[in-house]
């Protein structure tokens, strides 16, 4: 998977490639889908959600320039796949999921797999995780129509956020957001994507 779908398509960060080799994706998909676990495509995981395709997970990980000293916030735990990839590289991962069943399943799987540096919350990712802010980087794995202001606030100066933004009914843009040292926010459109919608808790 790594050589065929990732390295050949421009994923070059060594830590990201190694993490993608180490994480056992087949443990994070329903048993009926396990034969497809290492194909480069999203797969259904229940509750109307999907596990992201490996290329997208690797691309978003590489985009934040991960290193061992970082504290990263993930919005949308889902299967736990992105959180596991991050946990292979960075010091601490804080991950938020709004769907309780998915959050508990991911927590159980990641604990069974031995990850001790992932912290879980069931809640509304729109508000981030203020108690542990600021974050060196933020990865959002569901698409809001606009970037949540709280996430920009909780991004450390010099930090990066990668997030799909756009309407539910059509293609979104994957955006890279950087908080510059002068306080200004740079936003760059990377390429069109289709993510599940960013859902809010009542």
From TrEMBL:
Active-site residues per Swiss-Prot or TrEMBL entry: 52
Matching InterPro entries: PCMT, SAM-dependent_MTases_sf
Major localization class: cytoplasm
Annotated compartments: Cytoplasm
Keyword field contains Methyltransferase: yes
Alphabetized GO MF terms: protein-L-isoaspartate (D-aspartate) O-methyltransferase activity
EC number, as in UniProt: 2.1.1.77
One GO location term (cellular component): cytoplasm
One Pfam family from the record: PCMT
Enzyme class label: transferase
UniProt record, GO biological process: methylation; protein repair
HAMAP family: PIMT
Job of this protein: Catalyzes the methyl esterification of L-isoaspartyl residues in peptides and proteins that result from spontaneous decomposition of normal L-aspartyl and L-asparaginyl residues. It plays a role in the repair and/or degradation of damaged proteins.
Name by which UniProt lists this protein: Protein-L-isoaspartate O-methyltransferase
Organism classification: Bacteria, Pseudomonadati, Bacteroidota, Flavobacteriia, Flavobacteriales
Record gene name: pcm
């Amino acid at each position: 998977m790594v050589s065929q779908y990732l390295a050949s398509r421009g994923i070059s960060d060594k830590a990201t490639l190694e993490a993608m080799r180490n994480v056992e994706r087949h443990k994070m998909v329903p048993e009926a889908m396990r034969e497809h676990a290492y194909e480069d495509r999203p797969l259904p995981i229940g509750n109307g959600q999907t596990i992201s395709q490996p290329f997208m997970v690797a691309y978003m990980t590489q985009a934040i320039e991960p290193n061992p000293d970082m504290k990263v916030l993930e919005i949308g735990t889902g299967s736990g796949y992105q959180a596991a990839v991050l946990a292979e590289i960075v010091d601490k991962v804080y991950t938020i999921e709004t769907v309780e069943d998915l959050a508990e399943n991911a927590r159980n799987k990641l604990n069974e797999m031995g990850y001790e540096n992932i912290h879980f919350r069931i809640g509304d990712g729109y508000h981030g995780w203020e108690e542990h802010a600021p974050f060196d980087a933020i990865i959002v794995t569901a698409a809001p129509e606009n970037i949540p202001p709280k996430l920009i606030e909780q991004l450390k100066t010099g930090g990066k956020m990668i997030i799909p933004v756009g309407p539910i009914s059509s293609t979104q843009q994957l955006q890279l957001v950087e908080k510059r040292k002068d306080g200004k926010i740079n936003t760059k459109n990377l390429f069109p994507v289709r993510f599940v919608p960013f859902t809010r808790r009542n």
